[in-house]
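Record pair follows.
FIRST:
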Amino acid sequence: MQRTEGLRAIQVGRVAVAGMALLFLVGCAASQTMISKRNLDVQTKMSETIFLDPVGPEKKVIFVDVRNTSDKDNFDIATPIKDAIAKRGYRITQNPDEAHYRLQANVLSVAKTDPTAARHRYVPSVARARHELGLDVTIGLDEAIVRTARWHRGG
């Protein structure tokens, strides 16, 4: 009887020590995460660029609706977007029916990005087209930019 109680006490002690060690390790991981993110640097990245055709001043009316469904409740990007649009001569309206344009955006994620990763991800390359399709660059970059701008203007 006494030996069973002794074994039981040892087992309870082991479980208690293991539980405390687990709590300590979880606390260390949370502390490490907190320390590594103490200087959180927020950067924005647009997922798609849209060019608008030029219109007269009477049509430069835009309805802007920016929603934040990320886990960062205090992230406000709507105000800087509206300010940037207003600086370009557009009037912001609260009524979507009177707007000539509508800008609707949803912020899905707010996180720190690695600038070097973005640099490698967005470097244009024709290597795959050359390898898989046999295509080759026949005009220079300057001429390509001029042609692209002309195409966007409709000319």
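SECOND:
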Amino acid sequence: MPQHDYIISNDTGANVRSDINSALATIVQNNSGTTAPSTTYPSMSWADTTTGLLKFRNQANSSWITVGDLNRGNTFYDFYVGGSEVARIDSGGRLGIGLTSPGIKLDVAASASLDGVRVQNSYAGANGATLTFRSSRGSVSAPTATQSGDVVGLASANGYGTSGWTAAGYLRFVAAENFTNTAGGTYVQIACSATGSASPRVVFYVGADGDVTLPTHLTTASAANANLDSVTGSLRRSVSSLRYKHDLRPLDGAIDIVKHLAPITYRSNVAGDDPSARHLGFIAEHSAPICRELVNFNAEGQPEGFNYDRMTVVLTAAVQRLIAEIEAIKGSSL
């Protein structure tokens, strides 16, 4: 493996030609050798056959800069900084930063705190730094319409367990309909793994129409109605306008409902409630046969809660009936 000082000395024609040929051979082989050339120049290349690395001389001609791997063949292309590999593109077009075996199109490994991926934009207009997900069927060169149920975008999180990576959670955008140029209904899911579990479950859901579903947190200590659907989990806004109602009927039997309901005091079994405190309330299972409309049910059809806010309707009807009876008694005694 030739190396040359690139100085052609005066000599006979044959010797000069031999010296020139040796210099040319050194050039075409990138000054390859087990040790660095003894005579160096700025921007000079050196194929270091000991380490298998391609190096260039810096402009000050004071040190070598490693730029790549001589033995990579056609399987990857690597990038070096300060003599160490910092990035690699493999034969599948996957870019790895900080690792030599990228598993996805952009694979970043970091060992320093707050080291990772940052998107920054100094544009002062309406659109700032943007991270965009695109998803379609078909191919990159010939995409076809996204279909209902397709994951349009996914940001997932994983932590390392005892012997491998463990799912921690994700943010997922899912198509709610077959996409067209004027239809792109999408719902959003946020999921995380519970303590003692490695299976993320959805804890927050925003439907295509804006409905919000939250995880179920039980309490028997409050009568506040947050309008949380016990079957679907949707958070809903309460409305009372006539335009939202039909088949209106008067409430009959309000006094009997009040008469048969069983007000109680109790202590709660629900985690998070004070087990020593006493509360006032009703039992859903006991109340359902008396007035089903006062009870809400879960997805399995089991009594889940008492609609305390609806109790004012029953009490109003009962009081009105009593007032009517009192006024009738007063009228008959005149």
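COMMENT: The mean pLDDT is 86.
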